Amino acid sequence: MRILVVGTGGREHALCWAIAASPLCDALFCAPGNPGIAEEATCVPVAATDLDGILALCGRERIDFVVVGPEAPLVAGLVDRLEAAGIPAFGPSAAAALLEGSKGFTKDLCAKYGIPTAAYGRFRDAEAAKDFVRRRGVPIVIKADGLAAGKGVTVAMTLDDALSAIDAAMVAGRFGSAGAEIVVEEFLTGEEASFFALVDGKHALALASAQDHKRVGDGDTGPNTGGMGAYSPAPCLTPVLEGEVMERIIGPTVSGMAAEGRPFKGVLYAGLMLTKDGPKLIEYNVRFGDPECQVLLPRLMSDLLPALMAARDGVLDGFDLRWYPETAVCVVLAAKGYPDDPLKGTEIRGLAEAAAGDRAVKIFHAGTKRINGRLLADGGRVLNVVAWDKDVATARAKAYATVDRIDWPQGFCRRDIARRAMTRD
Q1: For residues 301 and 307, is the Cβ–Cβ distance under 8 A?
Q2: End-to-end distance of the chain based on CA atoms, in angstroms?
Q3: What is the mean pLDDT of residues 307-317?
Q4: pLDDT value at position 356?
Q5: CATH 3.30.1490.20 domain extents, the chain
Q6: Where are the alpha helices (DSSP H) in 199-335?
Q7: Does the domain made of 2-94 have the CATH classification 3.40.50.20?
Q8: Is the pLDDT of residue 226 over 60?
Q9: C-alpha span between 384 and 10 (Å, rounded)
């Protein structure tokens, strides 16, 4: 088969790395890709959101199957366009991608189908939102309704912080049209975890668990980011809890979306809070997490490509996947200034030497470009250093040792990735 992966980040590098290993894959393309992905696939300079360009590329290269990585083209309807043109694609339709495209839609779906989540209100008027906050009290969570690149959530610990977050989204327009409507919701306490399931419209197949680190600084301090690191499996998600998540959250969502005339196909990523009252849904993403994808795929023993095809074809019932027992740890190297104003254009050296000699280490590129042979930072989250081994302590040590061998003074990382799992062990 001739496969196209759409996207340019660390998640897409991990997807290309896994798909390239499939015996079903004869030729692999990525649009637009990055210098790391170029080692696995033929990169084509077509933006992930250029829907017409993607369709033209599929025609030129006789693409048999498309895997869409990021959320923006899914919400924009890329899968609908591909399928209408007779090109099979992995990912939800625009109608189903609203689970990520609108936090308010997801909250209303939860309310209608009894899916456990935080109490909430939806607002298009800033003063009404502020009145709701004053009545509810703090801490409280303010969320832009639409896509905001992982930066649209404020966990407000004071009233002033909450009111400022509302003004930033609705008055100052910090998130553009994504913040024209906001969701204000109850602050949940507990431990966060990420849960993934492949879905074929009717059936769901649980994948391995992971735990992300959203805050930019050690000890979960500073602003939220797209993710500063992850590890898999997440010890907090026991088999009993995973069964509860499938029964009370994933299952009702899949059946509810079908009942709403929006059958979901693709990967459903549930951000969870494990509260004293059981797991509750924080939000849904409609694609593989980033950087969670980077720790899931090294642990996948089975061929990824047939699983993605089975989800698209509606034949996941009875399908199974096998996983390696090792723990995988990902440390994100970000450019100084991230998440507000990352420093771009600085040179990165020593990648090949940093990971040399260990097959259980992989450096995924997230925001890089190559000019005149020099590898340069070209984003906020720039590199994902992933290592896997028999236990979390060994994998973590290996990942940080690799980080320390990379010559990039303008980069930084959190130094406490997976520490909670080590403490638990």
Answers
A1: no
A2: 43
A3: 97
A4: 85
A5: 119-186
A6: 239-245, 251-259, 292-296, 304-313
A7: yes
A8: yes
A9: 7
What is the per-residue pLDDT across 79-94, written as a single tens digit (0 to 9) for each? 999 999 999 999 999 9
Overall pTM > 0.90: yes
CATH number of 327-424: 3.90.600.10
Supply the pLDDT for residue 293: 97
Mean pLDDT, residues 171-192 taken together: 94
Burial class (CB in 10 A: 0-12, 13-18, 19+), 94: middle
113 in helix, strand or coil? Answer: helix
Percent of the chain with pLDDT over 70: 100
User: What is the C-alpha separation between 335 and 406, in angstroms, rounded?
Assistant: 13
CATH code of domain 191-313: 3.30.470.20
- Over residues 47-69, the pLDDT tens digits come to 999 999 999 999 999 999 999 99
Q: What is the separation of C-alpha 290 from the centre of its chain, rounded to a whole number of angstroms?
A: 4
Alpha carbon distance 252, 258 (integer Å):
10
Evaluate whether 315 touches 324 at the Cβ level (below 8 Å): no
**Measuring CA to CA, which residue among 41, 50, 53 is closest to residue 12?**
41
Residue 247 carries which DSSP code?
I
Distance of CA 334 to the CA centre of its chain: 16
What is the token pair recorded at 414?
């959190």
Chain-centroid distance, C-alpha 186: 23
User: What tokens appear for 144 in the block?
Assistant: 């832009």
Alpha helix stretches (DSSP H) within 144-223: 159-170
Q: Which pLDDT belongs to residue 315?
A: 97
